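PROTEIN DATA CARD
Card holder: Oxidoreductase molybdopterin-binding domain-containing protein
Chain length: 160
Origin: Microvirga vignae
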Amino acid sequence: MLVALLGGMWGASAAEPLPHPQGAVILTITGNITQTNTPGQAQFDKTMLEALGKASYTTSSEVSAAPMTFEGVPLRAVLERVGALGKTIRATALNAYQNSIPMEDLQFEPILAMKVDGKVITARDKGPLWIVYPRDANPVLDDVRYDSRWVWQLSKLHIE
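Structure generated from the sequence above:
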């Protein structure tokens, strides 16, 4: 597994006010968070997410046995930026698919992938955001429990 973390200490501090998105909103976070930029929620455009740091790894997935290189932002960095306080993340996709992810999963360093094999992923190709785990780095992740947490077309996170 190759993990590359870039961008210092995840960009801006959680204590700094969360700016308003200038581009199209691709992720909305609600629930038990301390930083918002609209009433009761934190909205992010692509540029805001990219400012939180970058991570990448090459791993296989449920949809492809051949390893693919995923690039995006660490989920941990996003949650830290909004001051997430909870035990569970409810992830919702554009098609209304939902799955709960325990905060303990942060130990595996999942990312919100925006690129696969160097190509930006669109809604048509499981994007614009896809929760991805480094499956090949830890045998426990090669399990249906974790496969279902690879939420593609991610649009919302709710912290409980």
